[in-house]
Amino acid sequence: xxxxxxxxxxxxxxxxxxxxxxxxxxxxxxxxxxxxxxxxxxxxxxxxxxxxxxxxxxxxxxxxxxxxxxxxxxxxxxxxxxxxxxxxxxxxxxxxxxxxxxxxxxxxxxxxxxxxxxxxxxxxxxxxxxxxxxxxxxxxxxxxxxxxxxxxxxxxxxxxxxxxxxxxxxxxxxxxxxxxxxxxxxxxxxxxxxxxxxxxxxxxxxxxxxxxxxxxxxxxxxxxxxxxxxxxxxxxxxxxxxxxxxxxxxxxxxxxxxxxxxxxxxxxxxxxxxxxxxxxxxxxxxxxxxxxxxxxxxxxxxxxxxxxxxxxxxxxxxxxxxxxxxxxxxxxxxxxxxxxxxxxxxxxxxxxxxxxxxxxxxxxxxxxxxx
Length: 371
Fold this sequence. Notes:
The protein is of the alpha/beta class. The chain is 40% helix and 14% strand. The chain has helices spanning 19-26, 45-50, 57-60, 70-80, 93-104, 120-127, 144-150, 173-181, 207-213, 241-248, 258-268, 271-294, 315-324, 348-370; strands at 32-33, 87-90, 110-114, 131-135, 155-161, 188-192, 217-222, 235-238, 298-299, 306-310, 327-328, 340-344. Strand 5 (155-161), helix 8 and strand 6 form a beta-alpha-beta unit. Helix 5 (93-104) runs parallel beside helix 6 (120-127) and helix 12 (271-294) packs parallel to helix 14. The radius of gyration is 21 Å and the shape is globular.
């Protein structure tokens, strides 16, 4: 049985190894996962304490969730200071990407994106049998000038991952304004801001202002990162009501389950947890980048909760060595940088354990070269 042509040969997304998998494979008791940009602090204790609403939760689990997500929608709208009609929710922001592609793309169109960025844009575009125009990064950052120049009458969507995954770099508010000014109003500009809550740079785009001034912009956010709800899969998009209305035509009726909706609603109410995670992440970034600088390694300025670092050695070797020591990081041939790894910020002890294992690898390689 053959699938449709646009699906044939598509790469299957391969998530990083799980903690249990590494324990079994290497006979380890303790493993640290620093590969998937998850929050080392977990989620807010307030969420855990209040997730199951009452003793009759068993009955509630037998019912379909609220397809309109009213409670979560109202809470998110107040938090973001937007109208409830400007929000669309999904099974992670991955599903919002899928919905956008399904809603707006058809053969004969093209989309523009960075060459090294979140891979789900390209996969979902290709499923719709639409041409992909990829623009190389410049210094690990989106080349907005080249991306704008690549837009033509066939371009329906432009994707900007900010901070960019995997490099962690950002484009600034002023640069983004100049870019969007060059994009036709008939072309949708998708701003993927999965890591926005981690950014400390004052020049980071003012998303609310962009949404108010440009009707063709949609911003994506997620509860999987700083909110620590990756297991429950909740993401959302913010756009003008007209765009959201069209997207809802292809959204599955009950695409966010009831527990996920409630967890996201509760998570938004505990912003002190978010602020604490933001501060801890900045300290973790400092811990990692200070060590990388001392080791003479190059890395892109990180603005999310991860660092993209050039190890100077084959990434597969670094990855395997760290696995054997119980540390999971991310290495990916598709990045086009065969000596780079992406390291998620852990807590202070986890970062120290990673650095100790990594330096041990570097020392061993140095000893091999000197023989």
